[in-house]
Design brief:
globular, mainly alpha
Length: about 290
C-alpha cells in the first residue's frame, strides 16, 4: 500500500477542523437546526452531480437496509448531538471529547465484524481513552472551561459513539454501494431531516430577528460543501483503503488542528490539560496506525 494514503485522513481532519471553526462562528448567531438546514442543502446540491455514477440495481438488499440506517439515523443524530454540545461548550473542548470515537469503532468492529485488534492497537486505544479521561475530568472542574457543562460533555461522548458505529457500517456497505451512492444518500437524508426540523422551528421566519443573515447563510452553505462533500469523500476513500480503525485513529489529528486554529482565530484558551490531552490523543492515534502495519 502506498504510504501517501495515510495522509488522506489527516487532510480530512484538517478540513473538518476548519469546518468546525466555521460552525462555531455561525452557532454564535443562530441555532443548530438552522445551521444544519443550510449546511445539508449545500451538501445535497453538490452531491446530486454524482447521480450519473450511481447504480443500485445489483446491490444486495442487506446493504440497502444498512444504508437506510447509516444515512437516516446515524449521521443526522451524530451531527445533532455534536452541534447541541457545541452550542453549550467551547469548540476545542467539545471536539476533544469527540476523539473517543476509535474506542467505539473498535468495540463495533469486534461485535459486528468479529475483528481482533493487535496489542499495539490496544495500547494506542488506551492512550486515547486516558487522554479523554483527562479532558473530561478537566471539563467537570468548576470554572475551568466557561460555558462547558456536564450536558455538553454528554453530547460530545454520545456523538463519538454514534460516529464510531457509523464508520463500521460505512466500511461494510461501501464495496457494494460505492462512494457516489453513499454521498448522495447521506446528503439527501440529512437535508430531508434538517428541513423537517427547520420548518417545524419556524422556517425562514427564524432568520428575521438575526443580524448578519447573509453571512450566516453563506458560511452554512460553504460549510456544507466543505464538510458534507470534500471531507466525506476523503473519509470514504480512507475507509476503502485503510479500514475503519486506522481511519478513525488518523482522523483524531483533527483535534490538534482545531486546538491550534481555535486558539489563533477564536482566541479560545489552550490550557495545559487541553494540550496534554491533545498530545496523548495524537500519540495514541499514531500507535494505533503503527499497529496496522
Amino acid at each position: 500500500m502506498n504510504s501517501a494514503i495515510y495522509f488522506l485522513p489527516i487532510g480530512a481532519a484538517f478540513i473538518m477542523s476548519i469546518g468546525m471553526l466555521m460552525a462555531k462562528s455561525v452557532l454564535k448567531q443562530t441555532n443548530s437546526i438552522t445551521f444544519m438546514f443550510f449546511r445539508s442543502f449545500a451538501g445535497l446540491a453538490v452531491a446530486l452531480f454524482f447521480i450519473p455514477l450511481v447504480s443500485l440495481a445489483e446491490v444486495p438488499h442487506s446493504s440497502l437496509l444498512l444504508l437506510l440506517l447509516s444515512v437516516v439515523l446515524v449521521p443526522f443524530s451524530m451531527n445533532l448531538l455534536f452541534f447541541n454540545g457545541v452550542e453549550r461548550g467551547d469548540i476545542g473542548a467539545q471536539n476533544a471529547l469527540l476523539q473517543i470515537t476509535p474506542a467505539f469503532v473498535v468495540i463495533s468492529d469486534i461485535l459486528i465484524l468479529s475483528h481482533r485488534p493487535g496489542m499495539l492497537s490496544w495500547t494506542g486505544l488506551g492512550l486515547i481513552i486516558f487522554a479523554v479521561m483527562i479532558l473530561a475530568g478537566f471539563l467537570f472542574r468548576r470554572g475551568s472551561s466557561p460555558g462547558t457543562t456536564p450536558l455538553s460533555v454528554f453530547f460530545g461522548v454520545a456523538s463519538a459513539a454514534v460516529n464510531g458505529v457509523n464508520l463500521v457500517i460505512l466500511s461494510i456497505i461501501l464495496p457494494d454501494l460505492g462512494r457516489p451512492a453513499l454521498l448522495i444518500a447521506q446528503n439527501l437524508a440529512n437535508a430531508l431531516l434538517a428541513g423537517i426540523l427547520f420548518f417545524r422551528l419556524g422556517g425562514f421566519s427564524t432568520l428575521k430577528p438575526m443580524k448578519n443573515r447573509g453571512r450566516i447563510i453563506l458560511l452554512s452553505l460553504l460549510n456544507g460543501i466543505l464538510v458534507r462533500v470534500v471531507y466525506f469523500n476523503f473519509r470514504l476513500i480512507s475507509l476503502e483503503t485503510l479500514g475503519p480503525v486506522v481511519t478513525s485513529a488518523l482522523l483524531l489529528t483533527q483535534v490538534l488542528f482545531t486546538l491550534i486554529l481555535s486558539a489563533l482565530i477564536l482566541k479560545e484558551k489552550a490550557t495545559a490539560p487541553k494540550i496534554w490531552g491533545v498530545f496523548l490523543i495524537v500519540a495514541g492515534a499514531l500507535v494505533v496506525t503503527l499497529g496496522s502495519f
